[in-house]
Amino acid sequence: MSKILMRTLIVTAAFGTMFWLTHIFELRLLDPVYMTGWFLAAAMGLQLMLRLKKRLPGLIPGNLSGWTERHAANGLFAVLIFALHTSFTWPQTGLEWALWGLFVAVAASGLTGLYLVSVVPLRFEPDTARETLDEMPAERARIAAAAVRLAISSVEQSGSRAIVDLYAERLHEFFDRPRHAFAHLQGSRRPLTRLVFEIDAAERDACAGQHDALHELKALVRSKYALDGRRAQELALKAWLFVHLPATYALIVVTLLHVCTVYAFTSGGPDVTAGAGALSAAQ
Amino acid sequence: MAENTDTSTGVKRGNYLGGVAFWSALLTVGIIALALGYDADRKGLMPGPLTPAHRVIADCAACHSSVGKSRFAWVSAIFAKADAHADSARCISCHSLGDTPNSPHGLPAERLKKEVKKQQTQHAPAPDVTSLALAANELLNATAGAVGGSQTSIGCATCHGEHRHADNPTSGGNDRTCNACHQAQFASFQNGHPDFSNNPFRSQARMRFDHAKHFGEHFEKARTKQPDLKFMPKACTDCHEASDNGQVMKLKSFGETCSSCHLPQIVGADRATGPKGVALLTLPGLDLVTLRDRKSPIGTWPEESEAELSPLMRVLLARDAKRRSLLVAIDKLDLLNLDAATDTDLTAVTGLVWEIKELLNELTTSKVSNILQRIRTATGSNIAREEITRLLGTLPREVLNAAVRDWLPSLSKEVARRQQPGWQQALRLKTKEHGTTSETQKQDKKEAEPKPQTKLVNNPKGGRWYVSVLGDIVQEGLEPAETRDAARGEIDKPQKVAAKPANKTSSKPSNATLKRPRNEAVSVDDETWSEYGGWYRKDYAVLYRPSGHADGFLRAWLDFSATARVDANSTLLAPVFELLTHKDAQGRCIKCHSIESSSDGGMSIAWGAASPSQKKRPFTLFSHAPHLSILDKQGCMTCHELNKSKKPDQPVAQSGPKTNVSNFKPIAKATCVVCHSSGRAPQDCGQCHTYHVAPTKPPMTPTRLPVKTGTKQ
To answer: What residue ranges do the domains of chain B occupy?
Structure first.
């Protein structure tokens, strides 16, 4: 907690300094947009260090988790400078909208990723084996096949179709494909509770030979629900990057164009030596 | 598919993410290339829309000096050295801002220096460091030295951010840009702005009007004395009204306000003693006994005159240095008592007499342009003919002729005689019968015959109608020769002299004692007859009676004598100025109109109430209009509080301009801060102050007149 507080204080202090510098620049007839623009470019460049660290781990010193933390803090700082650079106003032309839209996409996806990265891993059950996304369909198929076998064998053993009917009417869709992704991202267990409630209801009317089978079925439902949860969370952890990274690359391109146009069309920038110099000359 | 692992989550993922990112970047480049190719006028590159007035400009190069005209020329400008002043020059090609457009406030260095000194005198720098940024800036200035150096130029883009303020095209700098140069830095109007000094009365009021006395005394008296008075103000708006642009509360016209009480003072209706008009020409009274005894050759001169030499006439007499010296010598003498005068003094008096006679002769026999030349040579002023028209107030020739005929009937002959040898003997005063009579006059008397009265006859040949010296209307060609000659000033009409008053010291002769050839049954004198103003003759003076407010004659002489009295003409024009600015002067102009110091070191008369010109750009602007609707019952007195202890200065005479003290209390900053403070009405510098104060002229297009084909140009 103290680490987060420290980072927040650093970002706030840095932004305060920037804000104060804009006033100083204006007081000296300098256009602060140039200053905030280059600070923003520097902050964006620093963000790329995380990507470089991942691609070329040996080239960049420090560990990856440290760079990830710096990436998050610097990202927040960049968002604040961006607001300062744009004077908290909406874009007005095509190029500005492109810059603004891409920056907002990068920032929003980054913040989403920051949230997911800090929240989702905590939900993983520590002792559960964690399949990769590629292994999950096979595991889901294995659980589904076990459930079918259990339903068929219950008919043979007890002569009752109750479990088969329960599977066909209520559980077939559940075992057939990944389900309840949104509920999993919310951390909700309501779908699981509903399914378990229905199995419990069937158990009350079941004959003595079917109780064990229903208990096994209940365990398979829990396994499938956990598997779906892990899949939803893994996808979430990965999906934001599919917005964040391409938008970042596009933003770099548009930013380069922006810098080129600014310096091509600048009116000489502020006259650094005008202001007080003019008056001192007059005095 | 190759895989890598995200150690933060432990999730493995394929490197197709990098591929997506790469293709995304490539797609962006493609989109940009397409957009730039399609965007012929490069509007897509603009950081914001142009201000409405600039939207007609299609070419970026019209304003951006470093950018070429072709579609991709801007690429080469990326690394070009930008020139703020080259860009500013393009702004100024349309926005004329005077001769020094890029200097601070657009002012030349000298003027800027003066303004800085003035500000430093009036508002000693007292930085109110309530702003951290201001404090830091102060610190930076102190440690790093002056920000500038020797440059005195500020590019337009320093304050005006085109493409950034589309909603407010004139939007320029903000309070911080003002603080960049001004030494007295402060955070806001509420916090740190220097208090006003004697606002708004730093310059004297143009109109001398004692509000307190009028409210408390004059209006009440007038109401009691004249209950049926046409105009009696009951509210401020009875005399003041907002100007068309709402900037000032201007004074209503004299006719609408002051005239009901003050017009009689101007036209002299309430003047109990003294002439009601201003004397232009006079025959000064002389000690003729001494002049006769000392055999001074002055020719004919009326003995009854006790008039003084008119200051206005002095201007007409002082043609050159010699004559100016003559007037100076005369000033030391008592012309009515020359007992102790030396021969030199008498020579000066004789010289004056002949100067007067020559002037009168010239006035009656030559053109008005000669008078213009006389004033020009006397004052060294290159006055225009329009001005001479006002200075002479369209003086009728007949008034002059009649005056000369009655005062000096042998004038033309005497002047002619003076050119001949032995004139001193001939023109010496000899007798004491009715006035003084010279030899010439005696001869004239013998020759004098009653003139036949001419009749108005229709001339079949046609001819110019004119008024003869006898007062008849005659047609050229049909009049008797004597009448024609007299009308043209070629002969002198014999003076029919009235009896000398029994008691010489009783009084000056009235007009009735002088010859009045026609219309004997006059029941009022000329002065009374001229109650609505104009020229008239009284005793030995030709006078002008003011016709009303803003009388052109008085105004012309006041302006002329005020502006010209600073140099060598001061001795000549100062008496005129003193005559017309005296508290009892005819017209009473200076009773209300202030005398101000003019820019050339002289003086000027403030003829109109304050009315800021639309073209002027003062540093500080206040507009009444936005404030009028929010006032409560106190109305104008919310800000303008009467200060009964102070009264406007009395009219000045000789001492020159004075600071006219208003009898309203100065408006303090605190009055404005009641509304213009944080969270209420705006208080940024631009609310009251103007940056571009230099006079400007709109740029003109050199449009040639369409000429016919084949015409040589």
So the answer is: 1-38, 278-448+539-544
